[in-house]
């Protein structure tokens, strides 16, 4: 593959025809010792075959399941690289084994649950990896955690995945191992297609935050050669017994608040939010205040080279403005339109009096927020305009108009991360550990950030709080290192950048199979990433030719499984049913 990139991202900067994936005839008598399915070793520690005699059965809820099946032939971490499968009872025909606890079962394609049969049931895979952390595999059976999916007729597969915090003294689990493991699990399912109920053509990933990011990466990078060296190292299923390639492309992706596009995230964060802040690391006496301004100025240049277009084909760009940093142009207008739509959806979805509860901390933190009740829409609009007037409201039509980004950010989306929000200048951000080169070895990973440091380092050095450890040599040193597979940061960064696969500005464009169905939801108030993160993924998908992109930014919600209405799980299950082939 041509490794030259048009935009300097991690290197200095075939869509599917149907919902299913063209995968050949996967999963018959695959030989676990095949050199194409594992590493260069001629022996394999684990069989890739799913054992049809090893099913357990929950008779109360009519569920067959297997827990802890290793999904690669030569695992690096058996404590993570195993999965569990949960199947509605109607999809298997089983007989009890002599041990009295397990069952031998074969797929029953005619068994039905709800809208699906044992042949058509989609397979859903959770990606619960906050901050790109690891996903622990199931160690015991629990019906409660999977009941909603099984009752809807879905097959549920829960893989363990390595991640940011699972490295050991002898093993680095940093990127791209999390998505590599996810791809290996998908390949395992296709390898076992003949014995596994459900449709391996209709695999759908779902996750939030770092999980939403990793399922976005997996959904855009199907069969990308960037992952092949990693997959072969752990003995993932690459071919079936007849030598036909297996695919790790998926059919659909549900992403809530995906924290992705990390290569440019320092820049977009400062353009979208940081340029309106003046405290903390953005206070005028700090070198990072100048750094913030320079990052903000660099992002429009990157954005304009992406060549993004809206759904009507209009080119979206940023232009210089009289106030602020590049707060003008068609892209800026598009962003304001997205914000305005989100607010008007909120007004149409809700009635007043209305109580808004702010999020007290990260999901699952147990921290409680504060609640405020607004008696009328006028009261709420007045609250939005407390600092400055940036929203006008027409009571006759119950619609609002947003006049600019600064008022919105200062009211609803203030920066809560320091400058260098993702690739930290002292390698102190969580994402530096995502790209670590070993245990306790966080690394720089963003060449666009490195370029800003190089261009302005002399100026930064005039500030009293500057440290030479923050200079460009630290970035260059990290970028030169290679991981256990022999790949450098450029390779790894490209592998984890969805736009690398979606945008013609990058060498990875149309070098992968992109999921055909997408549902993206994000809380518009989150300070965890710029508004532009999810917007650009949506635009790039549409520009790529993906027709089904269900996208919404949800007003008054932050970093959570944001939905305009209803329950996230119920909405996800309904969405899967609406797009899958019956």
Summarize, please.
By secondary structure, this protein is α/β, with parallel strands linked by helices. The chain is 29% helix and 15% strand.
Helix content: 25-40%
Query: What is the overall pLDDT average?
Result: 92
Q: From the helix content, strand content and strand pairing, which structural class follows?
A: alpha/beta
User: Which band does the percent of strand residues land in?
Assistant: 15-25%
Count of individual beta strands: 17
Number of helices: 16
Strand numbers in spatial order across the main sheet: 1-2-3-9-8-10-11-16-17
Biggest sheet features: 9 strands, mixed
Low-confidence stretches: 1-42
Shape: globular
Please tell me how large the radius of gyration is: 24 Å
CA-CA gap between termini: 37 Å
Structural write-up:
It is a single chain. The protein is an alpha/beta fold and about 575 residues long. About 30% of the residues lie in helices and about 15% in strands. The protein has helices spanning about 145-150, 175-190, 210-220, 230-235, 265-270, 285-305, 330-350, 375-385, 405-410, 430-435, 445-460, 470-480, 490-495, 500, 530-545, 570-580, and strands at about 55-60, 65-70, 80-90, 90-95, 105, 110-115, 115, 120-125, 155-160, 200-210, 250-255, 355, 370-375, 390-395, 400, 515-525, 550-555. A hairpin with a 4-residue loop joins strand 1 (about 55-60) and strand 2.
């Amino acid at each position: 593959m041509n490794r030259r990139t048009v935009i300097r991202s991690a290197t200095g900067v075939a869509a599917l025809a149907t919902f299913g994936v063209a995968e050949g005839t996967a999963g018959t008598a695959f030989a676990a010792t095949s050199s194409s399915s594992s590493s260069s070793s001629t022996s394999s520690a684990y069989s890739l075959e799913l054992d049809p005699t090893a099913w357990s059965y929950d008779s109360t809820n009519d569920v067959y399941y297997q827990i802890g099946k290793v999904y690669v032939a030569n695992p690096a971490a058996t404590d993570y690289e195993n999965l569990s499968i949960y199947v509605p009872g109607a999809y298997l025909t089983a007989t009890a084994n002599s041990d009295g606890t397990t069952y031998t079962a074969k797929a029953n394609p005619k068994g039905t649950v709800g809208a699906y049969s044992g042949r058509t049931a989609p397979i859903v895979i959770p990606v619960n990896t906050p901050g790109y952390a690891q996903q622990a595999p199931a160690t015991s059976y629990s019906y409660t955690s999977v009941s909603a999916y099984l009752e809807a007729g879905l097959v549920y597969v829960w893989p363990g995945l390595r991640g940011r915090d699972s490295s050991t003294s002898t093993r680095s689990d940093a990127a791209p191992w999390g998505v590599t493991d996810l791809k290996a699990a998908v390949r395992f399912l296709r390898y076992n297609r003949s014995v596994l109920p459900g449709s391996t053509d209709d695999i759908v990933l779902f996750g939030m935050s770092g999980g939403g990011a990793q399922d976005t990466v997996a959904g855009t990078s199907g069969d990308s050669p960037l992952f092949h060296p990693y997959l072969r190292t752990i003995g993932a299923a690459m071919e079936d017994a007849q030598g036909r390639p297996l695919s790790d492309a998926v059919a659909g992706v549900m992403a809530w608040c995906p924290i992705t596009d990390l290569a440019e995230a320092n820049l977009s964060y400062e353009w979208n939010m940081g340029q309106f802040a003046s405290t903390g690391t953005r206070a005028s006496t700090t070198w990072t205040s100048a750094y913030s301004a320079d990052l903000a100025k660099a992002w429009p240049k990157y954005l304009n080279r992406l060549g993004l277009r809206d759904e009507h084909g209009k080119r979206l760009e940023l232009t210089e403005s009289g106030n602020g940093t590049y707060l003008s142009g068609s892209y800026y207008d598009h962003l304001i339109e997205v914000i305005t739509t989100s607010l008007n959806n909120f007004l149409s979805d809700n009635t007043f009096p209305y109580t808004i509860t702010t999020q007290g901390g990260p999901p699952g933190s147990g921290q409680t927020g504060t609640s405020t009740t607004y008696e009328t829409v006028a009261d709420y609009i007045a609250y939005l305009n407390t600092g400055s007037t940036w929203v006008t409201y027409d009571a006759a039509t119950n619609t609002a108009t947003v006049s600019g980004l600064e008022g919105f950010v200062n009211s609803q989306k203030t920066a809560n991360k320091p400058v260098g929000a993702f690739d930290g200048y002292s390698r102190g951000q969580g994402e530096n550990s995502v790209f670590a080169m070993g245990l306790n070895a966080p690394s720089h990973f963003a060449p666009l950030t490195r370029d800003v440091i190089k261009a302005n380092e002399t100026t930064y050095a005039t500030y009293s709080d500057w440290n030479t450890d923050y200079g460009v040599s630290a970035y260059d040193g990290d970028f030169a290192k290679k991981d256990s597979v022999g790949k450098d940061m450029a390779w790894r960064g490209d592998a984890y950048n969805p736009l690398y696969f979606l945008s013609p500005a990058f060498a990875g464009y149309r070098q992968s199979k992109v999921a055909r169905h997408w549902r993206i939801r994000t809380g518009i108030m989150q300070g965890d990433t710029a508004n532009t993160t999810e917007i650009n993924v949506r635009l790039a998908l549409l520009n790529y030719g993906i027709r089904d992109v269900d996208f919404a930014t949800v007003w008054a919600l932050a970093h959570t499984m944001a939905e305009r209405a209803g329950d996230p799980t119920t909405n996800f299950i309904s969405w899967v049913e609406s797009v899958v082939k019956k």
